[in-house]
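## retry 2 of 3
previous attempt timed out at serialization; input unchanged, resubmitting
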Amino acid sequence: MKQKTSRLVRNIAIIVILVANIGCDQISKNVIRRNVGFYETIHVVQDYVTITYVENTGAFLSLGSTLPDTAKVIILSVIPLIALLFGIIYILVKKNLTWLSALALSFAIGGGIGNIYDRLMHGSVTDFMHINFGLFQTGIFNMADVSIMTGMFIFLYQSYSRQRPRFAGN
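## retry succeeded, writing output
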């Protein structure tokens, strides 16, 4: 009974993390769509951190934006959505997954779903944040991208650390 309860708590925590990542992403994109003009630039911290509203019809750095519409939907939405759904099933049923691995996958999957939702509902992904520290400069990105990168950093940290405790209930 205790194992079933902790498994339920574990799965609820994973779902909350997924929903929080998707929610933060979608709320921030809706705020930008409603309040910032297309290609308008707002300086948040001088020229170092800016908000510029753009719509990306491709993937990372607009890769795939010139594909035919049908290919774009299949390659940038359908196939990744299937992979993300398998990822959700994996983290919910895998018994010996570390807490950090579950956390990393939850962030990455939540971010992926946020961007796919945009592609399917709006035909493009809303991007708006830009960081420029001279030698270090990003492309324009969104909160889903932040979630994906956070998940990857957590996973890399977990992969290279000696910490191997298991998530409760495994």
